[in-house]
Amino acid sequence: MDRFEAMSLFVAAAETGSLSAAGRHFGTPLATVSRKVSDLERHLKTRLLNRSTRRLTLTDAGHAYLAACRRILGEVGEAERAAAGEYSAPTGELIVTAPIVLGRLHVLPVVTGFLAAYPEVDIRLTLADRITQLIEEHIDLAIRIGQLPDSSLVAIRVGSIRRVVCASPAYQAEHGTPKTPNDLAAHSCIAFEGLTSPATWTFAAGKTERAVPIRSRLRVNTAEAAIDAAIAGVG
């Protein structure tokens, strides 16, 4: 008797509640499944399953043996994967998210190099200027800009950026150039939702920060749209 095969068929039958379902799962005839499970019971000298015309149910011995089989088969599978070298190199799918512009300019080149180095890994890169929910959206890794809230997630700082106030030469020729943050109140501004407030921009003043009121004539939800609008002279 192939004990591991019999144990696998028993686990499948117990989990599906049907010998025929276990047979379909493994591509094994029903008669063979029934015989192998019966051989296993004879080997153990105890009944594992109560059979009826509608459904299988586990005996007390069957419940205990099922837990042991799951543990043993899991350990055997783990050992086989390790022996086959599955863990010697990364494999599987990696889901990554990043802001659109940062992702296109800086993350994508890293991703292409990673794919070349690890041919058994597939990557799904989602670029979005919004805060994605990592757990709900099954995301493995997020590259984010800004102050991170306290959470149980593991975060590593990979770099730093600074924000600057920009306007096109045409806009400045028509409306003038602000000399101080307070001058922004007299100008048309483009607000990037999710990163800046539509009512105020924050500027550093030494070691402190202060919020400066702005007139937000255009609000957008992507950095690319904000850049394009500024180039077009909107604000």
UniProtKB/TrEMBL annotation:
Keywords: DNA-binding, Transcription, Transcription regulation. Pfam families: HTH_1, LysR_substrate. Gene3D superfamilies: 3.40.190.290, Winged helix-like DNA-binding domain superfamily/Winged helix DNA-binding domain (1.10.10.10). One of its GO terms (biological process) is DNA-templated transcription. Residues 1-59 form the HTH lysR-type domain. SUPFAM superfamilies: Periplasmic binding protein-like II (SSF53850), Winged helix' DNA-binding domain (SSF46785). One of its GO terms (molecular function) is sequence-specific DNA binding. Belongs to the LysR transcriptional regulatory family. This is Transcriptional regulator, LysR family.
